[in-house]
Amino acid sequence: MIGDLRHRVTLQQAVRTPDAGGGADLVWTDIAAVWASVVAVNGSARDASDKIDTRIRTKIRVRFRTGIMPGMRFVEGARTFNIQAVLDEEGSRRWLLCLCEEGEV
After folding, report:
1. Domain span including residue 53
2. Which of 23, 27, 28 lies closest to 11, judged by CA?
3. Domain CATH for 87
4. pLDDT at position 43, please?
């Protein structure tokens, strides 16, 4: 399993920062760079408002660490993986399986 961890991904968390107009901007902040296994599970495409909406579901496995939760994301180069669910595989606190959807939020 450790040999499958061949992708270097960056874990990011969204942070709201005040803007000049009294609102807030969403800024992604790096939390950690980790080794991961990245496996595409399935994908779908649909026509939505004259645009093709493509969704790729991906499983990302990393060594267990606290603090990873839905709403965060992994980034690898130009690819973005939005975390939808986080599972402690086997309940052993050894591996986390993150179910993700690829693409920008």
Report:
1. 2-102
2. 28
3. 2.40.10.270
4. 66
Partners of 40 in the beta sheet?
58
* Average pLDDT rounded to a whole number, residues 82-96: 93
Token pair recorded at residue 89? 């595989």
Tell me how many domains the chain contains.
1
Q: Which of 32, 6, 13 is nearest to 82 (CA)?
A: 13
Where would I find the H helices in the chain?
Answer: none
Percent of the chain with pLDDT over 90: 62
Q: Which residue has the tokens 């939505």?
A: 48
Task: Give the residue with greater pLDDT, 55 vs 63.
Answer: 63
Residue 81 neighbours by CB under 8 Å, 6+ apart: 9, 38, 58, 60, 73, 74, 75, 98, 100, 101, 102
Question: Locate tokens 């690829």: which residue?
Answer: 102
Judge whether 27 and 36 are in contact, CB under 8 Å.
Answer: no
Question: Residue range 57-63: average pLDDT?
Answer: 95
